[in-house]
């Protein structure tokens, strides 16, 4: 029911489309902050450029100032260095802050847009997408995109600049020594690339195991009584241990790869330093090279591998971010529920009419066939019939959750599709077959967090469905928190809450889908007596398995295998001796004979 | 170190007590790695000074080779240590998660009332990750940092005390600063995580309850709440980045200041010939090595505090023992008569079962009827010993069930709860549920619960995956899977908590008919709102607000005009029948 799913394992890891198209479509979420983006970019250039100067000054200090014993020169160099650093600090600070602001705001824009859009999508979309998946669309995918803007772009730019800058400076200082160092790089680039390719499926596997573990925790805690009654504690513990082991092995496998690369980098660094010292050192001995140059090369070599690795890491992250972008944008591409053009406060005056309505959730599998039905204003109609007959589906059409493939539904003579969804739904009070409770208090759930609804109004509704007295007996009355899936309430109490919630809105059309199936007949009886007066002049559509539930109604409609098999008053239908009469007899008549005899 | 004594970080402390050899290995390796790391700049210095004093090419080469050897050793240690640390972190995670989870499995409603499953999941995921990093990496990086700093200090002091001072001051400044500022980041981070939880919560509510959101036209209100939360989160995140950026710049400044000081003072010393150029370069390198340790050293306290928070959140799950106490006597139960004697029970001080006495003789069908929230399900849970009565007792064959072996006692029962519970696994495993049965028995069972036809239509039959990632079942189908699970072992006592209310009248009638034929001599305890089901029972108890208001055979109860009669008078629909007759 509630807290349904959790993060499903990652889906597609690679985007199918072109990166530039995604960027173009994502741009509007970030474009309000163009100024900041440009400024941050410039600052990035400045700070990267300046940071290259550090080792150059160090070289100058060694080769020029120290060699000549020039203390004043050293002071000048130091001051220069200080100035350069101050510039870097300022540039870094503002660049970090501005980009983070842009990233956060842009991601928030995208999240809001996605959320609002998803809520407007048709019900069929939700049938296909479990809520866990939608959550990761709104939350994780946008976060991945934020990282793309705030981190990946920075790292790529910075690392690229560093590489180029270092190469240029080393080349100018001693191109021969630089060639020596440069020869080392290609194998490493290749190694990084191979590493990424290998480690990606391993991480995917680990993420799947984490999802499995989380799933197991949630399922086990929800099903705890069942696990205990069936003595399955040991089995579940063993299952957890197995998953933990699998996660452990996966992590180990990833870290083998990880440290192999790490080792490679250390090794490369060593190789570079060794080479520079051996070859460059011999040149220096011959006087072909200064010691300052050697020091400069050594300090660059240890900085050379970091950007290389960063770039290859970010390319991987980038691919994943584009896959995220694709998923998020696909959702924005979905057509929202078609909203009718007739808006504004609506009245219900004459009737809802079904004219030869056919409906299928998927393809040609019709669950409603050729439905003709008229529900007049002020009428109370019951829908009865076998499980899976199509009763809930019929209600779904009235609420415009779905639209029929053939035929028409008329609302006061107007095609239902022309009427604005929200205006129509505001007329109704709906109790769905499955109780939905939100985390919050009993009161929150009754008024759906709408502070504008006065508590008195809520209490009146609760009194009507005979739940007020029970609520007052709870530890904190109306402020009692509803625990997960309403587990601290009895099932009947949960149903009555959902019922009361529909009445709080004082609806013109009341739609009850098995609203009292877990409620005892006595309480139900009391509720119906209360409803009789409330429903005077209003319309009601009531689905029930228990025939006792439907005494209020003027007319009974039997929905059988997607068709309306018969309709009429209780007496008419009994006299007809059809499906309804058989149902009725099954439930009561036999019984009657036994207890009387 | 702060562990152990204060009672905090007990999980970490216990872990290391179980793994003493590993701890020793790590200490030795860490010391070795630090020593090698410290030797490296020293060799570098020898080479540079050598070049300055124009040593021979051969000598230079041998220096370089030695240097390379040390470098290789360092590289190995550099890889081996983090690898072992990472492995240990994971090992810790595994042990703690399995350990905590297997305890939770024995807890009763007091736990689930307090911790939503998502919350528990979160704690066993993110909090545990946080803690597990600290458990090994946090501690041993501190050790490594401290040792490195110590060795470096010795090396530096041997070269020049003035320059040592100049080197150490900024680093100490860094450690001190991190100690002051680190916790602030933690505070921001925690608040930020709360916002994320809140956002997830709102998303989950909206998407899982979409029917309600649409029917009640609350999308706008939801969007508004969502936007407010988002704005709060942006504000917080921006504040966090500003703080972090400031910190980052501060640390860059400290590092640069340190380098500059060495350059400046060291340069002066070189010019004054009180320091060789090689020593000067070595100082530079040592300094670069020393700088990162200021985080590792400070981190023990910063992440230590975070780890302690995380540890508390994990231990909170098991801090109170919510499990059913296993009996001291552990007697083996023999099926027979169950008797409730003046049983009283409250959930969180709200009494829901009061002074209930009942007799459930073997081989009889006992019905329980009652109003909404009158305590029927609670009573069944007490019989199953899913929780303990506050007063009174449940007896089996005149023995208090608390003295019986709990596992053996529960094996007597088959139970279908009011709402079917399914797990994401195959249909077969959901029915078998850890027990054994052959194919024929399963199909016999499917027939009994009238699910055989449905299963034949499933693409994978009994191996159809259910739940989260599997296909969905209709409410009626789920109910029948739960019934099959309850009946698999032909248990002595069958408890059905309104488990057939999702079925239509036809199916329900047929089910009970088949059930009573299949298990003729078993005991049944059946909660139902349907007269038809109740009248098939031998004896009925009627509950009202936690008390037994009536009891008797179905016929007796109908002839009295008590609650039972009132409950079911409408179902009898006498007038209607009379009308039909006339
Ligand atoms: N979201 C959906 N997607 C696809 N098929 C669906 C969906 N909801 C219902 N169905 C199918 O449509 C048919 C009619 O279902 P519906 O829920 O309308 O029956 P019902 O009469 O309300 O049954 P019940 O009494 O069990 O509630 C069933 O075969 C069901 O499996
Ligand atoms: N885990 C819980 N924590 C706190 N209160 C609870 C919990 N479970 C049930 N209650 C309360 O105890 C009372 C009895 O609940 P119980 O589920 O036993 O009723 P019931 O007779 O089975 O009702 P129903 O006919 O609706 O199933 C109810 O008022 C309910 O709110
Ligand atoms: Mg339905
Ligand atoms: Mg119950």
Model description:
Chain A: Keywords: ATP-binding, Cell membrane, Membrane, Nucleotide-binding, Transmembrane, Transmembrane helix, Transport. Chain A: One of its GO terms (molecular function) is ATP hydrolysis activity. Chain A: Its main location: membrane. The complex is a heterodimer of chains A (597) and B (582). Chain A is an alpha/beta fold and 597 residues long. Among the domains of chain A are: 325 residues, Up-down Bundle (ABC transporter transmembrane region fold); 70 residues, Rossmann fold. Helices cover 64% and strands 11% of the residues of chain A. In chain A, a hairpin with a 5-residue loop joins β1 and β2. Chain A starts with 18 loop residues before the first helix and ends with a helix. With 582 residues, chain B is α/β, with parallel strands linked by helices. Chain B has two domains: 223 residues, ABC transporter transmembrane region fold, CATH 1.20.1560.10; 242 residues, Rossmann fold. Chain B is built from 20 helices and ten strands. Chain B is elongated, with a radius of gyration of 36 Å. The N terminus and C terminus of chain B are likely disordered. The chains are: A alpha/beta (597), B alpha/beta (582). At the A-B interface, α2, α3, α5, α6 and α7 of A face α2, α3, α4, α5 and α6 of B. The complex binds adenosine-5'-triphosphate (2 copies) and magnesium ion (MG) (2 copies). The site of one magnesium ion has 4 residues of chain B, from α10.
């Amino acid at each position: 029911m509630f807290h349904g799913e959790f993060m499903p394992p990652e889906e597609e890891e690679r985007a199918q489309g072109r990166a530039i198209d995604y960027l173009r479509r994502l741009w509007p979420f970030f474009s309000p902050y163009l100024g900041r983006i440009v400024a941050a970019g410039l600052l990035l250039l400045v700070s990267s450029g300046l940071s290259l100067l550090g080792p150059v000054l160090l070289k100058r200090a060694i080769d020029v100032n120290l060699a000549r014993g020039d203390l004043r020169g050293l002071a000048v160099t130091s001051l220069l260095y200080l100035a350069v650093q101050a510039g870097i600090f300022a540039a870094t600070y503002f660049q970090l802050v501005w980009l983070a602001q842009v990233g956060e705001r842009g991601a928030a824009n995208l999240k809001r847009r996605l959320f609002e859009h998803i809520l407007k999508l048709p019900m069929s979309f939700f049938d296909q997408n479990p809520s866990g998946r939608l959550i990761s669309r709104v939350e994780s995918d946008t976060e991945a995109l934020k990282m793309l803007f705030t981190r990946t772009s920075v790292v790529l730019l910075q690392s690229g600049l560093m590489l180029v800058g270092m190469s240029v400076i080393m080349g100018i200082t001693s191109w021969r020594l630089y060639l020596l160092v440069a020869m080392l790089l290609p194998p490493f680039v290749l190694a990084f690339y191979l590493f990424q390719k290998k480690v990606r499926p391993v991480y995917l596997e680990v993420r799947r195991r984490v999802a499995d573990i989380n799933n197991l925790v949630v399922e086990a805690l929800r099903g705890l009584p069942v696990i205990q009654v069936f003595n399955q504690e040991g089995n579940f513990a063993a299952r957890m241990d197995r998953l933990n082991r699998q996660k452990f092995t996966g992590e180990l496998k990833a870290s083998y790869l990880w440290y192999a690369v790490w080792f490679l980098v250390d090794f490369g660094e060593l190789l570079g330093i060794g080479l520079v010292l051996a070859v460059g050192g011999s040149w220096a001995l011959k006087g072909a090279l200064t010691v300052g140059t050697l020091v400069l090369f050594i300090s660059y070599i240890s900085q050379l591998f970091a950007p290389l690795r960063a770039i290859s890491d970010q390319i991987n992250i980038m691919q994943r971010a584009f896959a995220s972008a694709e998923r998020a944008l696909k959702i924005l591409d979905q057509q929202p529920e078609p909203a009718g053009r007739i808006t504004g406060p609506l009245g219900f005056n004459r009737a809802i009419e079904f004219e030869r309505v056919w409906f299928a959730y998927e393809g040609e599998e019709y669950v409603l066939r050729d439905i003709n039905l008229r529900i007049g204003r002020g009428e109370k109609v019951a829908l009865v019939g076998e499980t899976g007959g199509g009763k809930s589906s019929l209600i779904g059409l009235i609420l415009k959750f779905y639209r029929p493939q053939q035929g028409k539904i008329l609302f006061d003579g107007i095609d239902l599709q022309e009427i604005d969804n929200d205006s129509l739904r505001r007329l109704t009070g709906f109790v769905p077959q499955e109780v939905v409770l939100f985390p919050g208090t009993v009161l929150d759930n009754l008024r759906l967090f709408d502070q504008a609804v006065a508590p008195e109004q809520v209490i009146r509704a609760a009194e009507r469905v005979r739940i007020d007295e029970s609520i007052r007996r709870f530890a904190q009355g109306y402020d009692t928190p509803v625990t997960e899936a309403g587990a601290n309430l009895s099932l009947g109490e949960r149903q009555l809450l959902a019922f009361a919630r529909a009445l709080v809105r004082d609806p013109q059309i009341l739609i009850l889908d098995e609203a009292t199936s877990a409620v005892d007949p006595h309480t139900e009886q009391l509720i119906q007596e209360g409803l009789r007066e409330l429903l005077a002049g209003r319309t009601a559509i009531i689905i029930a398995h228990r025939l006792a539930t439907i005494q209020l109604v003027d007319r009974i409609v039997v929905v059988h295998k997607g068709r309306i098999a018969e309709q009429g008053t209780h007496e008419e239908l009994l006299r007809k001796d059809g499906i309804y009469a058989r149902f009725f007899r099954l439930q009561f008549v036999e019984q009657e004979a036994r207890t009387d005899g | 170190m702060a562990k152990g004594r204060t009672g905090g970080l007990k999980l970490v402390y216990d872990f290391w007590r179980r793994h003493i050899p590993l701890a020793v290995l790590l200490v030795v390796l860490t010391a070795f790695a630090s020593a090698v790391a410290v030797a490296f700049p020293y060799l570098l210095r020898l080479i540079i000074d050598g070049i300055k004093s124009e040593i021979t090419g051969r000598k230079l080469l041998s220096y370089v080779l030695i240097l390379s050897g040390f470098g290789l050793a360092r590289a190995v240690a550099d890889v081996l240590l983090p690898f072992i640390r990472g492995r240990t972190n994971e090992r810790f995670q595994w042990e703690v998660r399995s350990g905590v989870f297997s305890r939770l499995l024995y807890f009763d409603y007091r736990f689930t009332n307090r911790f939503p499953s998502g919350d528990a999941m979160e704690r066993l995921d993110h909090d545990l990750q946080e803690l597990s990093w600290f458990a090994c990496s946090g501690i041993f990086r501190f050790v490594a940092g401290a040792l490195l700093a110590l060795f470096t200090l010795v090396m530096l002091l041997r070269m020049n005390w003035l320059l040592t001072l100049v080197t150490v001051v900024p680093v100490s400044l860094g450690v001190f600063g991190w100690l002051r500022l680190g916790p602030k980041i933690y505070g921001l981070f925690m608040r930020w995580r709360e916002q994320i939880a809140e956002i997830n919560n709102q998303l989950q509510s909206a998407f899982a309850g979409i029917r309600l959101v649409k029917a009640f036209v609350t999308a706008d209100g939801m969007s508004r709440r969502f936007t407010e939360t988002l704005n709060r989160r942006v504000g917080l995140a921006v504040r966090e980045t500003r703080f972090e950026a400031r910190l980052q710049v501060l640390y860059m400044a400290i590092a640069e200041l340190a380098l500059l000081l060495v350059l400046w003072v060291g340069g002066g010393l070189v010019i004054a010939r009180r320091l060789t150029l090689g020593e000067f370069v070595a100082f530079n390198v040592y300094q670069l090595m020393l700088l990162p340790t200021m985080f590792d050293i400070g981190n023990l306290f910063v992440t230590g505090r975070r780890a302690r928070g995380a540890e508390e959140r994990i231990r909170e799950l098991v801090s109170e023992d919510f499990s059913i106490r296993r009996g001291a006597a552990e007697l083996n139960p023999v099926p027979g008569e169950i008797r409730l004697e003046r049983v009283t029970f409250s959930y969180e001080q709200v009494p829901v079962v009061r002074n209930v006495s009942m007799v459930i003789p073997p081989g009889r069908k006992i019905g329980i009827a009652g109003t909404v929230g009158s305590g029927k399900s609670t009573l069944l849970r007490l019989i199953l010993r899913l929780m303990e009565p506050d007063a009174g007792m449940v007896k089996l064959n005149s023995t208090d069930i608390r003295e019986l072996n709990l596992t053996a006692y529960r094996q007597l029962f088959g139970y279908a709860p009011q709402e079917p519970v399914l797990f994401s696994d195959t249909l077969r495993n959901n029915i078998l549920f850890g027990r054994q049965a052959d194919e024929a028995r399963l199909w016999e069972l499917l027939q009994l619960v009238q699910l055989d036809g449905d299963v034949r239509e499933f693409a994978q039959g009994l191996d159809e995956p259910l739940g989260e990632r599997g296909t969905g079942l209709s409410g009626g189908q789920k109910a029948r899977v739960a019934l099959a699970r309850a009946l698999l072992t032909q248990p002595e006592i069958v408890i059905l908590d309104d488990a057939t209310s999702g079925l239509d009248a036809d199916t329900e009638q047929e089910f009970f008919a088949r059930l009573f034929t299949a298990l003729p001599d078993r005991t049944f305890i059946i909660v139902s709102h349907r007269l038809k089901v109740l009248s098939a029972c031998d004896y009925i108890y009627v509950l009202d607000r936690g008390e037994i208001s009536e009891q008797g055979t179905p016929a007796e109860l109908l002839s009295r005009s008590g609650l039972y009669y009132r409950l079911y008078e409408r179902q009898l629909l006498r007038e209607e029948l009379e009308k039909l007759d006339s």
